[in-house]
Automatic annotation (TrEMBL):
Gene Ontology terms, MF aspect: 3',5'-cyclic-AMP phosphodiesterase activity; 3',5'-cyclic-GMP phosphodiesterase activity
Superkingdom of origin organism: Bacteria
InterPro entries: Metallo-B-lactamas, Pdiesterase2, RibonucZ/Hydroxyglut_hydro
Protein name: 3',5'-cyclic-nucleotide phosphodiesterase
Organism: Jezberella montanilacus
Domain (Metallo-beta-lactamase) ranges: 19-197
Coiled coil residues, start to end: none
Length: 258
């Protein structure tokens, strides 16, 4: 059966029906835990066994503490969280510290906690059933990764939050049967300075950094700044280096099969 990636949230902010980054792979693996997770039913949340974080920024982790609190007692095993060493350390220090939120890695007991955590590094591959998840390079203001998610020989690549990162594009170019490429573009070209400062893409920096991908790869744009999505997409569509397949804006509610 084809794997499915459900877009729970992919916006650079909130407001109305906008939700921040959270992607549900089949029904048991979450890639980032932004505000989109809050739309899931309690039953759907309870099925999540693994969470892969791209980085520690709030818009990508915000639902995780509440998710664990809501489903922990209903589950018979811990939710397992993967992230870079810096991401895991930041969560332990600033979120699950007993002050902002309980430390669910030792609650209700150290032997049977609601959450366990593992570190990974760029290039690591985690295989879960017929799915494999590989950490891709990213460049952001904190340590970050993207992910390549593969199933049955077909792959979706996701940039996470990143500014121009040649290592990411080198890895993406090596992927055989890349069906979907999800790449962030947070700012308009008017805000190129801000994009550079915060290590995000704007259309011109994406065009300058991006390497060609197969024309059969659909390119999706995520992390659009609220209220600026139309302008960012218009600027992207004026750039001819993006590739032969016109990039489209990713929206919450979409399901990508691969
Ligand atoms: Zn970020
Ligand atoms: Zn973000």
């Amino acid at each position: 059966m084809a794997a499915q990636l459900q877009i729970l949230g992919c916006s650079g902010g909130i407001g109305g029906d906008l939700r921040t980054t959270s992607l549900l792979l089949d029904d048991d693996i979450l890639i980032d835990a932004g505000t989109g997770v809050c739309d899931l039913s309690l039953d759907a949340m309870t099925k999540i066994d693994f969470v892969f974080l791209t980085h520690s920024h709030l818009d990508h982790i915000l639902s995780l503490p509440l998710l664990l609190d809501s489903v922990g007692a209903k589950r018979c095993k811990p939710v397992h969280v993967y992230g870079l060493p810096a991401t895991i350390a930041t969560l332990k220090k600033h979120i699950f510290n007993g002050e902002i939120w309980p430390d669910f890695s030792v609650i209700p007991s150290a032997e049977k906690p609601f959450m366990t955590m593992s570190t990974l590094k760029t290039g690591d591959v985690v295989c879960l059933g017929n799915r494999s998840i590989r950490a891709l390079p990213a460049l952001h203001t904190v340590d970050g990764v993207g992910y390549a998610i593969s199933s049955n020989g077909s792959t979706i690549a996701f940039s996470g939050d990143s500014g121009p990162c040649q290592d990411f594009w080198d890895e993406v170019q090596k992927i055989d049967k890349l069906k979907h490429l999800l790449i962030e573009t947070s700012f308009t070209d008017n805000d190129e300075f801000l994009a550079d400062l915060s290590q995000h893409y704007c259309p011109v920096s994406l065009a300058n950094s991006m390497k060609p991908v197969s024309p059969s790869t659909q390119i999706w744009i995520s992390h659009l700044k609220p209220g600026q999505g139309e302008q960012i997409m218009a600027e992207l569509n004026h750039l001819d280096r993006i590739g032969r397949v016109e990039p489209r804006a990713l929206v919450a509610g979409q399901i990508l099969s691969f």
